[in-house]
Amino acid sequence: MSAGSIVARRNTLARALLYAVLAVFAILYLMPLYVMLVTSFKPLEEIHQGNMLALPEEWTFAPWREAWGSACIGLECSGVHGYFFNSIRIVVPAVLISGLLGAFNGYVLTKWRFRGHKVVFGLILFSCFIPFQIVLLPMARVLGILHIANSTTGLVLVHIVYGIGFTTLFFRNFYESFPDELVRAAKLDGAGFFTIFFRILLPASIPIIVVTIIWQFTNVWNDFLFGVSFTSGDSAPITVALNNLVNSSTGVKAYNVNMAAAMVAAVPTLIVYILAGKYFLRGLMSGSVKG
Amino acid sequence: MSTPPSSRGIGERLQHWLPRLVLSPSFVLVLFFVYGFILWSTWISFSNSGMLPDYTWAGTRQWSRLWSSWTWGIALHNIWVFGLLYIVSCTVLGLLLAILLDQRIRAEGTLRTIYLYPMALSFIVTGTAWQWFLNPGLGLERTMHSLGWESFSFNWLIDANMAIYTVVIAAVWQATGFIMAMFLAGLRGIDGEMIKAAQIDGAPTWKIYGRIIIPQLRPVFLSAIVVLAHLAIKSFDLIVAMTGGGPGNATAVPATFMYSYAFSRNEMGIASASAVFMLAVIAALIIPYLYSELREPRS
Predict the structure, then answer these.
(1) Chain B: nearest CA to A266, how far in angstroms?
(2) Is B100 on the interface with A (CB under 8 A)?
(3) What are A143-180's pLDDT values in tens digits?
(4) Domain B74-295 falls in which CATH fold?
(5) What is the ipTM of this complex?
(6) pTM here?
(7) CA-based nearest residue in chain A for residue B125
(8) Nearest Cβ partner of A224 from B15, B120, B122?
(9) C-alpha A37 chain-centroid distance
(10) Using the beta-carbon criterion (under 8 Å), do A138 and B36 form an inter-chain contact?
């Protein structure tokens, strides 16, 4: 009996330790977000006093107002709101069109296979993994030729093209496990290509549609490389504006405004993550674990 | 499907070609914007191109200029240091967190959400936050001073020898939760019978993990390393946001090198050569991995 209780006691101790370690990690992970938030609500004098961990003595929304509406980015002093809307203008069409193309591709590559379908899929899939540096220079030229350089339209095209790989991967893996019998029965009944897609597969695809939208939304919203390479000034997305705001060397650094602007850039993807974390994780995993 | 084409009506023939027709726009886009561009960049890397493309063959001139560049040497050294530390730290921490979370923890869902949220953030946001957090004048250092630890000093961000490690810290913070989630999924998929048998034999917990559980996670290790290596080579945003490649060139990596030669120095030839090199490294890593993943027979 005594042996059992010793083990039990050791276990309680071990479990307390376990929870302590997990809690310490949780604090470490939350710290940067916490510091960002409290800094964004402090007046600048309070920041210069030190202790970034302290809560604001005097809460102020002024940094947020300034970040949104009047902070200077380059020569323009109207905050990040215009760039925020640029990002929305880029994200919405890019996500919808690349998602739709991916859904069709996944459908064809699983239910209407033709000779060479594996090679086609392999070629599309590899495009997910290329370092985008390899396409920057030719893309800059093509956008120039198409007269959509330095525009949100240009970035929409870029994000569609380089989003197809992932959206095709998602839908293809999802439809791979969709029962062939249903499709075959519908074909025997004389249902055509589109009828089968819209009537049978699409209604069953809600989970993968959510995964795809979240994945593409996060990727396109968080993109910086394409934004900084192909746009400048007014047509830049929020990430580029944030970087220009934070890393411009002129004047006194308004850390509180910088943090508020960073929060503005972070909030949309954070909301998506909090509301649909499960689907977010599924997108991450299927992008890495199984081809 | 097996009817010869001649006996089919036009509608049937359309049905036959329709799937390929639907796939073709995407395929054409990928062929042009991915493979066409790769060929174009490769050609440029063997040409005389400077500010404008010049398609005359110049042999390996740009490549030898690349390899004799001092900054490129720094960039390669940095990506090696960064990549190694990033991959090892994320894998070790991710596995540790996954094992700890796999002990029937009460608040597992909440903790998982906390560990994973940085993955939803843009690297620019992460970089901005950590740049502020590690700011030698006002950030962590000052905070420690004001809490009474006067001798505390942490100025890695502006120290040319240490700045790359601050990027490692931020990058690890961002990706560990994701690697943890991969390992957690792997742990949940392990067959419990062998573990139970070992427990009955009285094997200590650490031995069960070391001998039975971790060896079974081999495929997860492989995926994690491939994903992390791929993220590391592409790292650009975080470095731009945190250090801008500085101080000086101290935190230059191939991605920032390529960008500065392409868009600030107008040296298309060298920029393309560096991009082709990056692609070659990633391809050597990804193609065998994709091949092994796709080749497996499906049930």
Answers:
(1) 6
(2) yes
(3) 999 999 899 999 999 999 999 999 999 999 889 888 99
(4) MetI-like fold (1.10.3720)
(5) 0.88
(6) 0.89
(7) A262
(8) B122
(9) 21
(10) yes
